[in-house]
Write a structure and sequence with these properties.
It catalyses: ATP + protein L-histidine = ADP + protein N-phospho-L-histidine. The chain is α+β, with helices and mostly antiparallel strands. Helix content is 55%, strand content 19%. Helix 1 (7-60) packs antiparallel against helix 2 (122-169).
């Protein structure tokens, strides 16, 4: 998955890269264009000087030179004119200097002359550097000004969006308060707010309807089950039934108990999914485990070994904490194949429960799915570990399963 970055940072990064590319390109173009203009200007000066020299020779019929600026020599043949940059010694400066040189051949008064005129290039380069430097400085100052102005403007522009995003993060289906969105004069933000309000209102309505439906179904199922249970108890207490009828009625009674348990667990899963357990309190899981072990010792023949290095203290609903520990221990007891001791180990950040097993699960990745079971245990409805996983997901606990040394291991990691 690609790394996520903030919107302002993303747009600012794009602005910086675009500005950098434009600055480099514009600087390069400015440099070469200015250099071209300066070189054209030097060439025009050389042409003008050359014209004056030729005119002076025609008029006065005299040869003169002013090294290294003007040099005139007689030649045998006419050759093409030549422009070039050359480094020669300048007597006035007493050092080597860079010159732009024009060499032409002219036929004047029945004689061919080689006319060479030169002009300084060093000063032109200094002018070029000064122009480019000053332009770059202006570009950089303007660029940073526009960058910070653009960032501040964008922050103000996107402020309603960011505020509404925080409101959406705090939105809760269980809260009676409607979502409060900041209005904006930007059409797209205004339309987004309208759609968010419509969506959240519909979600809350659907949630309330689903919640009401679940509660009604749970309540309505419990009533006829209780009536059926009462009638069955009456039949059982009536001594006129045969042994065969007693067995059939006892089987029906077990199915009713199973149906009642199934209804309770499905209702619990639905409430956990709907985040209806929002009563947070500090729960000492180590103390809770000790109490649960004592309770299970009264109804189970399995021995339980408990070792705690440090108390586990978490913030969660106390009722869900009780169900979490109860399901883990009861699952270990139910599937402890060789009746070996069940081992429970805790430290500050984790809880490990292990029980003996004959073989590794065929599909451990399906272990926490609803109604999944790999045994023929009639007393299991396949929801105990599903509830464990739901509770762990609700509080960002991590639950892992592994099988090693002929033992099943369940580990809870608390953040």
């Amino acid at each position: 998955m690609a790394k996520k970055i903030k919107l302002i940072k993303k747009t600012s990064k794009t602005f910086l890269l675009t500005g950098l590319v434009l600055t480099i390109l514009s600087t390069g173009i400015l440099y070469y264009y200015t250099k071209h203009l300066l070189q054209q200007e030097i060439d025009e000066i050389l042409y003008s000087t050359e014209a004056r020299v030729v005119n002076a020779i025609k008029t006065n019929n005299q040869l003169f030179s002013l090294p290294p600026i003007v040099e005139i020599r007689k030649a045998e043949i006419i050759q093409p004119q030549v422009f070039k940059d050359t480094v020669i010694f300048d007597p006035s400066q007493k050092e080597m200097e860079l010159f732009r040189e024009l060499t032409t051949f002219k036929h004047i008064n029945n004689q061919i002359y080689q006319v060479t005129v030169r002009d300084f290039v060093v000063e032109n380069d200094q002018i070029l550097i000064a122009i480019v430097t000053s332009t770059i400085t202006v570009f950089i100052l303007a660029f940073f000004f526009l960058f910070y102005f653009n960032t501040a403007k964008n922050l103000k522009l996107w402020s309603p969006f960011f505020n509404n995003l925080e409101q959406m993060k705090r939105f809760s289906l269980t809260s009676n308060q409607s979502i409060e969105l900041e209005d904006s004069d930007i059409l797209e933000f205004s339309e987004l707010n309208k759609e968010i309000r419509t969506l959240t209102n519909k979600v809350k309505t659907d949630y309330e309807n689903l919640k009401q439906f679940t509660e009604n179904v749970s309540h309505e199922i419990q009533t006829p089950l209780a009536i059926i249970q009462a009638k069955i108890d009456t039949f059982i207490n009536d001594g006129s039934i045969s042994d065969k009828q007693f067995q059939d009625i006892s089987s029906i009674q077990k199915d009713i108990q199973r149906l009642k348990l199934l209804n309770q667990k499905i209702t619990l899963i639905t409430k956990v999914d709907n985040h209806q357990f929002d009563n947070l309190e500090i729960v000492n899981l180590t103390s809770l485990i000790s109490k649960k072990i004592e309770s299970f010792k009264e109804i189970s023949t399995n021995s339980i070994y408990f070792d705690s290095e440090q108390d586990i203290v978490v913030s969660m609903d106390a009722y869900l904490a009780d169900i979490l520990i109860n399901n883990l221990i009861s699952n270990a007891i139910k599937y402890n194949s060789r009746k070996e001791a069940i081992i429970i180990i805790t430290n500050k950040k984790s809880l490990i429960i292990s029980n003996a097993g004959d073989r590794e699960l065929l599909n451990p990745e399906k272990l926490f799915l609803r109604f999944y079971t790999e045994t023929n245990n009639k007393h299991s409805i396949g929801l105990g570990l599903t509830i464990v996983k739901k509770i762990c997901d609700l509080y960002n606990f991590k639950v892992n399963y592994s099988f090693k040394e002929q033992k099943h291991f369940f580990q809870l990691i608390f953040k």
